[in-house]
Design a protein that fits this description.
Elements lengths: L21 H21 L12 H7 L36 E2 L3 H16 L15 H4 L7 H12 L7 H14 L6 H15 L1 H8 L1 H6 L8 H18 L7 H13 L5 H13 L4 H13 L6 H11 L1 H7 L6 H17 L3 E2 L6
Parallel strand pairs: 1-2
């Protein structure tokens, strides 16, 4: 199934730990993943995926072909006490909450933008055609705005994967973000989608870093990822031109998007200069420091920013554990999730039943 791995060994292991809540085991299992990846690198290989599941399922599908050692009847003791995740620093000052909008109203606004831009489904990009289809117009109403926006994001980039369709849809997403008919909270959600799309290349680079090194290859970004980020960057001045009218949460996210697109903008740097003192000692201050480092030219601030984040974010620490991961790619890859977790409090959700 993977021609590049012809002649390679793949090593699978199965361990079932009974009597523990999954959440309590999470830090231990994360540490095991880091340790196994280190062992793989030490032998010139790489860790390719990992999985967990119910004991009966795992034991039913686990193949013993090639098994060299089995300790099936003994209990292997877990460390006591179990390791715990590091304490999360306090969040920054709360954002001003922005209404996400009634689902029917947001759908109408999005369709109106599609009609204005393309007129009919025949002239619309593939990711937008469904919005102009009669079957959609007369379909069941959405229960929540987030459900609709999730369908829109999936149409643009199925399961988050950039394609030619994604590149074609970027101008449409930008038009939505600049349209005053779109509720402020929905605009923040759409901005989050752009953050993820712009980071798709670095995310892949980080996830494949050990594999590429083991196989002696060189990283080459997929054309769709590169073109998507370039398309977002070319439209970015439109978003930044609205800077004075945006909420603080949107400005924070826009500063991150500016960094992801490799742009430098004094407004973005100015926003961070304001955010950092007000958020001193918080997780937001650490995220803002990362954005500032990525907006800069050198690596001087990047290492301490990543170190601070890894000290309290296990996901960052796990990705940073590989010496094969490029630090700038790592910073770009982790940025969308950090930003979206921070600004989530600035989105006031609403549904038809509220």
């Amino acid at each position: 199934m993977d021609p590049e791995l012809e002649g390679w060994w793949q090593v699978f292991s199965l361990a079932v730990y009974a009597g523990y809540e999954r959440r309590a085991l999470a830090p231990f299992l994360r540490g095991e993943r880091i340790r196994v990846a280190h062992v793989a690198r030490a032998h010139g290989g790489f860790q390719q995926g990992c999985g967990e599941g119910h004991a009966e399922t795992l034991e039913g599908v686990f193949t013993r072909d090639g098994l060299v050692h089995e300790q099936s009847d003994d209990n292997i003791a877990l460390p006591s006490p179990l390791p715990e995740d590091p304490a999360h620093p306090p969040a920054g000052p709360p954002w001003k909450s922005s209404d996400i909008g009634d689902p029917a109203t947001v759908v109408q606004a999005v369709v109106a933008v599609a009609e204005r831009m393309y007129g009919s489904a025949e002239d619309a990009p593939e990711a937008v055609r469904w919005l102009l289809d009669e079957a959609f117009a007369f379909g069941e109403p959405y229960g929540t705005t987030c459900e609709f926006l999730g369908d829109l994001a999936n149409a643009v980039a199925h399961q988050g994967t950039c394609t030619d369709t994604t590149v074609e849809a970027v101008p449409f997403l930008m038009e939505l973000l600049c349209d005053d008919m779109i509720a402020p909270g929905s605009r923040l959600v759409l901005l989050g989608d752009l953050l993820r799309l712009a980071a798709s290349g670095p995310v892949t680079a980080v996830s494949l870093a050990d594999r590429i090194t083991a196989l002696g290859g060189a990283w080459q970004e997929a054309a769709a990822d590169y073109l998507t980020r370039r398309a977002i960057g070319s439209e970015l001045p439109r978003l930044l031109s609205r800077w004075k009218d945006e909420s603080d949460a949107v400005r924070f996210a826009l500063a991150a998007l500016t960094a992801l697109c490799g742009s430098r903008d004094r407004r973005a740097l100015s926003a961070l200069a304001t955010t950092l003192p007000a958020s001193s000692g918080s997780s937001r201050a650490d995220v803002a420091s990362l954005v500032a480092a990525l907006l800069g030219d050198g690596r001087e601030g990047l290492v301490p920013a990543l170190d601070r984040l890894a000290s309290w974010s296990p996901r960052v620490a796990e990705k940073a554990a590989s010496p094969n991961v490029d630090l700038r790619s790592l910073g770009l890859a982790i940025l969308p999730d950090l930003i979206l977790e921070d600004v989530a409090s600035g989105i006031a959700a609403r549904s038809n039943n509220s």
